[in-house]
């Protein structure tokens, strides 16, 4: 059989699924795979979608898939659920969602749950997006639940960031405004048929009006959608296209920042593993932790010592 | 003047504030300070409070402060807002909140906003809690907004984790249940006077009933509160006390796991800084990123090379 990387590049769905599992498991084969496919990446456009739980993101993403397919483009979805430590539920969810696009090779949907520490999820998400990119998907949608730092990090790695709100979440808009202001390229008010939709739009508008947008700077538009009926989805796709055209000259810079984040994060991961596997004796790390717990030493002194023994 | 560490240990509020700022700024003096005060920590009981935005956590925490003070204990609060990149708003909020406890030296409240990458916020939060611990606060409340991985990490570092829900957030309970199931030691249904409070209690109860709790294992209780009136706050404090007594034998293990997370995270941070400051030539990191962007190389190969040059 052809190597996995070749089959991924050929767009084989089973190879894509296998590749993402390797990445999720942090297997060494996953790193090798990313290395092999990396030269074939950089063509897909990455769309990040986040928002509070219950904002209807999955339904919205499904509608976007339909719209993108109608326009003749292929699409891959990485659905990240940082709150779910159980992959069983995620896999079941994928099956249900994939059924809506059954028999369409131009669509690939994959959920990822929380793994590891130190930004492991953001790394895995970024690499899953690389796999879909290398597999020739024109658009890669990264969908995540929540509005914490992890989601901000994930969505920041996309080429465009969409923040989804729902009517009647006035408190939320207030509570989240600073973080949202920073990452949203496009706001979506979903479930726009609900009471209070115009009020939600008005409060986002009020937030935006506090900021100045110099000539030529993108001002995040607010798009009203009803994901269940599909209303507003065409407008959202048009807003994504406008943003893409507007930011095309700066895309290289945004992607370089993304590479910087990824490299730094990967360095951290490798260094710690190296110290634990090659520098510390068996059981030594555990004994040091016991000494910290007993207040015989402190975390900084322990780390100083480990670093000194590990670096040249 | 006495060294900052001595003044922190003496409980001087201005010294505590200064110490937390050093930690927040990731200043080398902050690390020195933690080293100096570390032997004086481990006495405070750490209470983590999280939940979706708008769940009324701040009001609830304020009520807990009053209850704790009535019981004759001192209290420190670290209010983490991962969605707010602006400390200005946080500081203003602190002033408003502190006024409620003006003139009471037994209360110290401090907000922290998002800083840096690689778990920087969880690290800073943990160290701020150490400062309040060393300063002699009996209870340290760590309050955070959200239910993403970052909040889970923060709350996990506490001795007891409280998850706050509000009625009418049925979708949320469903969406979040996996993550919540994992971290909650106590559930609070706040705004319990609202319609649907009993339904929210019932759905948490339904979730819990899916799990088996062997004899002797803690089963998270569900406490109904109305933070605005103070109803249920005494019950919540009683639940915290019960949990504390129940888990006292295992507290050492929980704290050791916390130390492990902290040490690993600190190692990562130090290694990356070492590589960037001492191993890579000026401008080299940037040139490597350009080569990645141009697809002349890939992140894994770059990291392999940097790690090889950095470690012994």
Interface with most residues: A-B, 81 and 81 residues
pLDDT < 50 runs, ≥5 residues of chain A: 84-89
- SS class of chain A: alpha/beta
Q: Strand portion of chain A, in percent?
A: 5-15%
Gap between N and C termini of chain A, in Å? Answer: 43 Å
What's the architecture of the largest domain in chain A in CATH terms?
Answer: 3-Layer(aba) Sandwich
The average pLDDT value of chain A, as a whole number, equals 84
Helix content of chain A: 40-55%
Oligomer: homodimer
Largest sheet of chain A: 7 strands, parallel
Write down the secondary-structure element order of chain A.
Answer: HHHEHEHEHEHEHEHEHHHH
Tally of distinct domains of chain A: 2
Count of DSSP H/I helices of chain A: 13
Q: Rg of chain A to the nearest angstrom?
A: 21 Å
CATH superfamily of the largest domain in chain A: P-loop containing nucleotide triphosphate hydrolases
Overall geometry of chain A comes to: globular
Which sequence of strands runs across the widest sheet of chain A?
A: 3-2-4-1-5-6-7
Gist of the model:
With 312 residues, chain A is an alpha/beta fold. Chain A is built from 13 helices and seven strands. A seven-stranded parallel beta sheet of chain A has the order 3-2-4-1-5-6-7, with helices on both faces.
Topology:
The structure is a homodimer of 312-residue chains.
Chain A (H helix, E strand, L loop, with lengths): L3 H6 L3 H12 L3 H10 L7 E7 L5 H14 L4 E7 L5 H13 L7 E7 L6 H15 L4 E6 L4 H8 L3 E6 L4 H14 L2 E4 L7 H13 L12 E3 L8 H15 L3 H29 L4 H10 L5 H12 L2
Parallel strand pairs in A: 1-4, 1-5, 2-3, 2-4, 5-6, 6-7
């Amino acid at each position: 059989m052809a190597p996995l990387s070749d089959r991924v590049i050929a767009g084989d769905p089973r190879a894509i699924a296998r590749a993402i599992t390797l990445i999720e498991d942090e297997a060494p084969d996953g790193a090798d795979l990313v290395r092999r496919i990396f030269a074939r990446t950089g063509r897909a456009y990455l769309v990040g979608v986040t928002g509070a739980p219950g904002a209807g993101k999955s339904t919205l993403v499904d509608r976007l898939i339909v719209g993108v397919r109608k326009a003749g483009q292929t699409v891959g979805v990485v659905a990240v659920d940082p709150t779910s430590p159980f992959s069983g539920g995620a896999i079941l969810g994928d099956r249900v969602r994939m059924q809506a696009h059954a028999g369409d090779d131009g669509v690939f949907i994959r959920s990822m749950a929380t793994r590891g520490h130190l930004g492991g999820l953001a790394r895995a998400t970024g690499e899953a997006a690389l796999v879909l990119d290398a597999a020739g998907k024109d658009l890669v949608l990264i969908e995540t639940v929540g509005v914490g730092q992890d989601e901000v990090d994930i969505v920041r790695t996309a080429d465009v960031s969409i923040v989804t709100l729902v009517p009647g979440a006035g408190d939320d808009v207030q509570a989240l405004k600073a973080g949202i202001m920073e990452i949203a390229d496009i706001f979506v008010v979903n479930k726009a048929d609900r009471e209070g939709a115009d009020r939600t739009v008005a409060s986002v508008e009020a937030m935006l009006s506090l900021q100045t947008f110099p000539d030529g700077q993108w001002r995040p538009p607010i798009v009203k959608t009803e994901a269940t009926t599909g209303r507003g989805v065409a407008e959202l796709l048009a807003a994504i296209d406008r943003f893409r055209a507007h930011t095309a000259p700066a895309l290289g810079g945004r992607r370089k920042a993304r590479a910087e984040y990824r490299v730094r994060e990967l360095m951290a991961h490798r260094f710690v593993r190296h110290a634990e596997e090659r520098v510390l004796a068996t059981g030594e790390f555990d004994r040091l932790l016991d000494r910290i717990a007993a207040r015989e030493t402190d975390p900084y002194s322990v780390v100083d010592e480990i670093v000194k023994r590990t670096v040249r």
